[in-house]
Design a protein that fits this description.
The chain is an alpha/beta fold. The chain is built from eleven helices and eight strands. Strands 1-2-3-4-5-6-7-8 form an eight-stranded parallel beta barrel, surrounded by eight helices.
């Protein structure tokens, strides 16, 4: 990523189609991408992605796909037709599933002549603490060890990058190199509420540590002027 390139992916968790269209228009120019997650995708369907793309917005489609390899391959092939720039899948689906997702991209590009999205593997959700990971999920590694292990698996499977909390950026960068995308949720500007996130940091620190893109939602959408808030964050991290 170029140093002067926008790095903020704005998470659009809104339940009103008109409001979504307004945000596509207002924030699209100053955001690296706009993130459409399960809430919006389930409520409005695939057309919400196509609507955003038609308006000139770059979209990160955060579906966190996790299923048997064949199902994920076919799902990714179909998602590729929507025009999103980035698509998330779960790394915990394993090597075969992640490789199948890559085949889904290739299938769509070959059969339909479209450019598929870059594939991002979700590692450990930022809402999960180390205590919960060990006591509830039975993972004996530390969060950092688990995230790096999953990131390396994702790279081996042919994914373009991963989604991971700010706390693991440096370790992933050291393990996976400079050409591997790191997309970081759990970003909170100074003075913002952490909400349901467990592993957070400021935009400035995340970029300094090596993140390519920062996912920020509520601190922007709940601001009195979301456009100005986005520009303010961009200014603080673009050198």
């Amino acid at each position: 990523m170029k140093q002067n390139e926008n790095k903020v992916v704005v998470a659009l968790d809104v339940s009103n189609k008109n409001k979504a269209a307004q945000l596509f228009d207002e924030l699209g120019e100053d955001a690296a991408a706009l993130k459409i997650g399960l809430e919006m995708f389930i409520r409005f369907g695939p057309e919400i992605v196509q609507n955003a793309v038609a308006r000139g917005a770059k979209i990160m489609l955060d579906l966190k796909l996790h299923d048997i390899p064949n199902t994920v391959q076919k799902a990714v092939a179909n998602v590729s037709l929507l025009g999103a720039e980035l698509l998330t899948i779960h790394t915990t689906g394993g090597m075969k599933m992640m490789k199948a997702a890559r085949r889904g991209i290739e299938e769509a590009e070959k059969n339909y002549g479209v450019k598929g999205p870059k594939l991002l593997g979700v590692t450990v959700l930022t809402s999960i603490s180390e205590e919960a990971m060990k006591n509830e999920l039975g993972v004996i590694k530390s969060v950092e060890e688990q995230v790096v292990s999953l990131a390396l698996l994702a790279k081996e499977a042919g994914l373009d990058g991963v989604v991971a909390s700010p706390k693991e950026i440096k370790s992933i960068r050291n393990a996976c190199g400079d050409d591997f995308l790191i997309v970081t949720p759990g970003i909170r500007p100074a003075g913002s509420s952490v909400d349901d996130q467990k592993r957070v940091c400021t935009p400035e620190q995340a970029v300094a540590d090596g993140a390519d893109y920062l996912v920020i939602g509520r601190p922007i959408l709940q601001a009195d002027n979301p456009v100005e808030k986005l520009k303010e964050i961009n200014k603080s991290i673009i050198h």
